[in-house]
């Protein structure tokens, strides 16, 4: 009898929760303590070995743990480029390494499910840093910060006793256990109970849907049909499929059916293909393995089969599978929305004809409440976390209003599950109304004012907020305040964007600043990323560029990708008139219905988005752009807008907001605001320097920072060239100047004074 030792990496999440990763395997577990975790995993391994003559193969003989810190710069990657953050991040990565039986060395990266071999221990850390850097460079900032927040792990071992010289009949090896192609492309489902036992916040249940579960089992087992479960997002398609699979799997050993289920992502089929025809060969081997394993393939995101493998659905993976489905060599199950089903029927009708369809409709309010009650019972009994009825009612109301395009019970169970997970991490025993509101704010960025009916809108504070951000545009401020009031009262149309506005006026008068102010007010609470999505429409001047904006096939465009990532945001379409007219046609359904449906039936929702378009149309027709406004200026702009855009486009805009030419006093206010913001820059804060600016400095900036054609836009450049550069030179020449007051004046050049004493040779010409 030989005793194997498997490395166990574990994290102490809190006093009563431990996360364990069995290194070199797919086994992960959450338990209350280390001893119980080792017992559960050891029992599972021993049972698998006894039943199947099978155990995980881990070569490391004496595993050791090392944590290296990798210096990485978080970067947001979008279609139009990469946007690195200013500060680098030190990310700790645990490595489990050691010598193997073959005389080489192996290192596992458990957090990434990766490993590598090396031959010289001196090369270990260099290789590890290189590999970790490559992996982390492909991670989003959110994923990187999540890694930083992991507690420090520890290493233990889980023993397994095996017969060293035991003979295994490889010819009669259980067909469902070891298949190279099947295991490479798909995962066995469901996992054994002992491997998935833990305290997860999401139950494996399909409450109040027993009839649908029975119908699915009947079609899968008795009719051996290909099955497609159809319904809106959140109605419970995945939950019903999971429950049916569990019941069939639990029933199989007793009835000698021995069904196995395998879950696959379509993109994995072609991900490793290097040459033409390779993925077709992989699919053939996959189907052969499935037949040997009596396997049923569960395809996640079924419609992707039509987008994978070829340039059109006719030469896709879905088309390749049709003859196998028709001949009964492949049994396929999946799920789709109603829009996706119609798209599949339109693009590849022969594929859909092979499925039997189970429709899952919206549930009644009474049944939804029962499901939420059952989830509360599950949370209380299994996790020790209470969800009072008042908290459930609040979550239901918020989700009903702010997520009208998703269905219950899915969106409610998902949201409450997130609340429970946060409560587990914070060692809380109750999810009350405050926790529901905090989690909702975290997800949406909406202020508490919008989420609580008992909080009244302070109209003076509202006006003050926009007046501090937007200067010289009283009409625009009044319009923005009106939008907030309508939204607070709940009178906005839930089946359209929150509002759609066209900002018109000369350049440099505050159109973009107004959009930023509105984004900060609506969605700026606690968000890591800016709630303003800005797209320069001058980049889409040709008809074929619409695919770059919206997307095509399996690739999401710039607009779609941004809104899917940040559905609660202000979308700023800058200089919209410069886009090709085909772009305006594509935006009609977005402005009218608040959604965009691509060719494959996938819906992108804009109903929690404020859409703002800016235009300079009419600016060239004005008599002058200076410190005064002409009488008929609004008429000039409106006429130019209506002459340029088609009526059906203009009619879908909720309001046209006119921006005035700025007056001299407005420019002065903007200059003072910019100077006030300058005081809070990092270089001055770190040195403890307090800046005071004289009226002469303000007067000079107003004089050079305003242009008749470009409005206040040159002001930033003037600040940079005539103030910030001289100040940076002064700081570099006076490195020891800390914790003091600087008085900045202008008399033919910048003059910096410490208190009342003027410094010599420290001025720079303006």
Helix-strand blueprint:
Blueprint: E1 2-14, E2 17-22, E3 28-31, H1 34-52, E4 64-72, E5 75-78, E6 81-84, E7 89-99, E8 105-109, E9 114-118, H2 124-137, H3 141-148, E10 154-162, H4 180-185, E11 186-189, H5 193-196, H6 210-222, E12 226-230, H7 237-255, E13 260-264, H8 267-271, H9 278-292, E14 295-299, H10 317-326, E15 332-336, H11 338-347, H12 349-352, E16 355-359, H13 365-383, H14 389-402, H15 410-425, H16 433-444, H17 448-451, H18 459-469, H19 474-489, E17 499-504, H20 511-523, E18 532-536, H21 546-550, E19 551-552, E20 555-556, H22 558-565, E21 569-574, H23 581-593, E22 595-597, E23 603-605, E24 609-615, H24 633-644, H25 647-650, E25 655-658, H26 664-678, H27 682-687, E26 690-693, H28 695-704, H29 714-733, E27 741-746, E28 749-754, E29 757-758, E30 764-765
Parallel strand pairs: 12-15, 12-16, 13-14, 14-15, 17-24, 17-25, 18-21, 21-24, 26-27
Antiparallel strand pairs: 1-2, 1-10, 2-3, 4-7, 5-6, 7-8, 8-9, 11-13, 19-20, 22-23, 27-28, 28-29, 28-30
Helix pairs in contact: 6-7, 13-15, 14-15, 14-16, 15-16, 18-19, 26-28
């Amino acid at each position: 009898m030989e005793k194997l030792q498997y490395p166990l990496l574990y994290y102490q999440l809190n006093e009563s929760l431990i996360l364990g990763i069995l290194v070199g395997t797919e086994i992960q577990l959450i338990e209350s303590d280390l001893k119980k975790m080792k017992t559960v995993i050891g029992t599972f391994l021993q049972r698998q070995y006894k039943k199947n003559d099978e155990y995980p193969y881990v070569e490391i003989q004496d595993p050791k743990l090392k944590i290296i810190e990798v210096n990485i710069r978080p970067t947001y990657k979008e279609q139009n480029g990469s946007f690195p953050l200013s500060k680098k991040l030190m990310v700790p990565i645990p490595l489990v390494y050691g010598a193997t039986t073959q005389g080489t060395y192996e290192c596992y990266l458990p957090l990434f499910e990766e490993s590598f071999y090396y031959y010289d221990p001196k090369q270990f850390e260099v290789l590890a840093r290189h590999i970790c850097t490559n992996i982390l460079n492909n991670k989003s900032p959110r994923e990187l910060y999540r890694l930083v927040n992991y507690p420090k792990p520890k290493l233990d071992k889980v023993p397994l006793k095996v017969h060293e010289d035991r003979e295994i009949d490889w010819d009669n090896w259980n067909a469902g256990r070891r298949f190279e192609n099947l295991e490479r492309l798909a995962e066995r489902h469901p996992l054994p109970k002992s491997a998935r036992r833990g305290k997860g916040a999401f139950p494996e249940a399909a409450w109040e849907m027993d009839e649908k579960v029975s119908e699915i089992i009947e079609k899968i087992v008795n009719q051996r049909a290909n099955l497609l479960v159809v319904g809106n997002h959140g109605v419970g398609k995945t939950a019903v499929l999971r429950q049916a699979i569990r019941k069939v799997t639990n029933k199989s050993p007793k009835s000698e059916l021995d069904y196995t289920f395998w879950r696959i992502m379509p993109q994995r089929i072609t991900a490793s293909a290097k040459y033409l025809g390779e993925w077709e060969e992989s699919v053939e081997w996959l189907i052969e393995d499935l037949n040997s394993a009596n396997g049923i393939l569960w395809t996640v995101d079924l419609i992707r089969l039509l987008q994978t493998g070829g340039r059109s659905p006719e030469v896709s993976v879905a088309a390749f599978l049709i003859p196998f489905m028709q001949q009964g060599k492949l049994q396929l199950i999946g799920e789709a929305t109603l829009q996706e089903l119609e798209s599949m029927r339109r693009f590849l009708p022969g594929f859909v004809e092979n499925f039997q369809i189970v429709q899952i409709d919206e549930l009644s309010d009474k049944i939804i409440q029962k499901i939420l009650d059952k989830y509360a019972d599950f949370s209380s009994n299994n996790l020790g976390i209470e969800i009072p009825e008042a908290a459930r009612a609040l979550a239901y109301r918020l989700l009903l209003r702010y997520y009208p395009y998703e269905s219950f019970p899915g969106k409610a169970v998902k949201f409450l599950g997130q609340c429970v997970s946060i409560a587990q991490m914070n060692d809380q025993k109750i999810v009350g109304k405050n926790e529901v509101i905090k989690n909702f704010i975290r997800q949406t960025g909406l202020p508490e004012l919008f989420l609580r009916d008992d909080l009244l809108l302070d109209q003076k504070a509202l006006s003050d907020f926009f007046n501090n951000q937007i200067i010289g545009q009283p009409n625009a401020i009044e319009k923005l305040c009106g939008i907030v009031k309508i939204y607070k009262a709940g009178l906005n149309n839930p089946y359209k964007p929150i509002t759609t506005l066209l900002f018109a006026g000369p350049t440099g008068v505050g159109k973009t600043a107004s959009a930023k102010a509105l984004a900060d007010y609506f969605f700026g609470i606690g968000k890591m990323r800016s709630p303003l999505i800005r797209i320069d429409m001058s980049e889409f001047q040709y008809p074929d560029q619409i695919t770059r904006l919206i997307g095509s096939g399996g690739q999401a465009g710039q607009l779609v990708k941004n809104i899917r990532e940040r559905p609660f945001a202000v979308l700023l379409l800058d200089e919209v008139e410069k886009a090709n007219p085909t772009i305006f046609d594509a935006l009609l359904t977005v402005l009218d219905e608040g959604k965009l449906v691509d060719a494959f039936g996938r819906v992108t929702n804009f109903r929690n988005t404020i859409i703002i378009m800016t235009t300079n149309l009419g600016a060239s027709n004005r008599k002058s752009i200076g410190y005064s406004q002409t009488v008929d200026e609004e008429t000039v702009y409106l006429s130019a807008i209506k002459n340029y855009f088609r009526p059906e486009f203009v009619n879908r805009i909720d309001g046209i907001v006119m921006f005035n030419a700025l007056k001299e006093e407005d420019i002065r206010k903007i200059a003072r605001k910019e100077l006030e913001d300058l005081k809070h820059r990092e270089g001055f804060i770190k040195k403890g320097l307090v800046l005071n600016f004289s009226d002469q400095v303000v007067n000079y900036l107003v004089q050079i920072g305003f242009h008749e054609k470009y409005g206040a836009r040159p002001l930033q450049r003037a600040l940079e060239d005539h103030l910030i550069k001289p100040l940076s030179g002064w700081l570099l020449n006076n490195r020891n100047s800390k914790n003091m007051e600087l008085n900045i004046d202008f008399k033919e050049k910048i003059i910096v004074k410490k208190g009342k004493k003027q410094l010599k040779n420290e001025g720079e010409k303006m």
